[in-house]
């Protein structure tokens, strides 16, 4: 038996043994994302690039779960781990089948470059829907569960997760290849790095991906400060550049002059794997004396360790027998539906919901997202065989007459190219006029909010210019409301939207996955109570926020925004059909206890949220420190216990140090945060003082 095939040896020994059987040229080839085969060593080709943000992506049929921002809105640790378990099992099922036919192409491997744990600091950022929202604690907590679900607890990794993008990557997309994000030590530690540290130290995430931008002057993929933090956290996996980010060193950041110099800078800093083609210049860099053979060897060992951890050089692993038919199965479809139901956030309801079908004969379903599959998918998605659009979900759930009108294009002024502007308004108004209730499905999709190069909008490379609906949708909403029928507005979007015109009810459904239409119908007709909460603040006007290119946190997110007149719906906000009361908050020796009771006659889920105010200077207004989602029967109650970690009581000073600055604290408990807007909309949270 070859030494590297001996499972009794450590991963480090096996990887070093295999690397040392390679030539320097072969070692360098292992540092490319499209690593070639080495036939003389029986090493198959391997493409590292795969995605699993909310389902196995870009490689054919797979279960499509709600987009990441929607999963965050569920505020449910158990749910997100279940979703990640399914994603990784489907990735193994597809890998096993594709390997049998020697298909080792892109998006076919076991290294999933997910989750995206950047902080959604500004609602204009197009990629925000890939994240878990604006709060570091929520992001870290859900991110850890997602990583554990992806990687599993077996003898080998089921898949290898990746925490991205280190660091401070949150727009603007059109400047990301050249921009220098200037960040204070306090904001870096308190906001931008917290989740990365948690995923490395607690979830043992196998990979970290760098960002495109510079951070305080140095490229993120060769940043001395960030690389030192990885070492401090005990990171032992592989570091991968964002795709073609190393090319930006010389082409856009101008910190090097040539591709070999860029390759050398990244490799020596600690970037083991290159998504892109710059590491094809490693041997040139070696000839020029910019790197050593040992630099290449060390990086090669590092990436090989991950392949060994995945069991790729073992004769058999516990995951090799996951069959192809597990992919896209009924059980996974059912979980996607449950997840979608938990993610949707009810923002307004004058009592019209849930709909009483005995009082309805005709329902008009109107809008450019009503029958849209892209509005279900988000980005970084697979393809489902089971899509249920919002229109189809409503049709399936009722025996009433359902009529449909597209109303307008998603963002263009006409649907038909030869028609006049506004060519679908009359049809929509006619449908509304003969209906008893209108369900108006508006919003965006990933073609107009998303990543630069993926999003096709001609506005801002995937970013939003403001928080309003596209102009034709604003006109459609105004025209439909003017008809005078009851209107329920449904917004499918991955970010905050100000619809400007209030209707009888407003539901934000994100990009809810393959069963989004069924989930929406179940909420509209009262089969389930909505229980999602906002993982981001919804503002009225983005012009009242700090400049998009300002990475300071002052005035941003619920933790630092004091412009309450500009807040439509706060972080943590969400209505439901059940009525609850939170009582008996207590704290003792690191444990907080609180009771929640369902005082109504309907059953459903609710999220209990804990926040803390540290009474010291330059600290957030308050900080989320705990949350739990519970199911409550009518009249039922449950007492919850929360363990508060040091995170709750330590502040971050201007040097970026976590210290105990406060002598007293206020602990809040409720079904929302304790800000002025939430108090006005929902009533005050409980609070107690702690010393």
CATH H level of the largest domain: which superfamily?
Answer: Glycoside hydrolase, family 3, N-terminal domain
CATH architecture heading of the largest domain: Alpha-Beta Barrel
Number of domains: 3
| Helix content class | 25-40%
The oligomerization state is: single chain
Describe the overall structure.
This protein has 691 residues and is an alpha/beta fold. The chain has 3 domains: 47-257 and 309-326, TIM Barrel; 344-536, 3-Layer(aba) Sandwich (Rossmann fold), CATH 3.40.50; 580-690, Immunoglobulins (Immunoglobulin-like, Sandwich), CATH 2.60.40.10. Helix content is 28%, strand content 17%. It has 20 helices and 25 strands. It has a 6-stranded mixed beta sheet, with helices on both faces. β22 and β23 form a beta hairpin. α4 (77-100) packs antiparallel against α13 (330-343) and α5 (136-151) packs parallel to α7 (194-201). The mean pLDDT is 96.
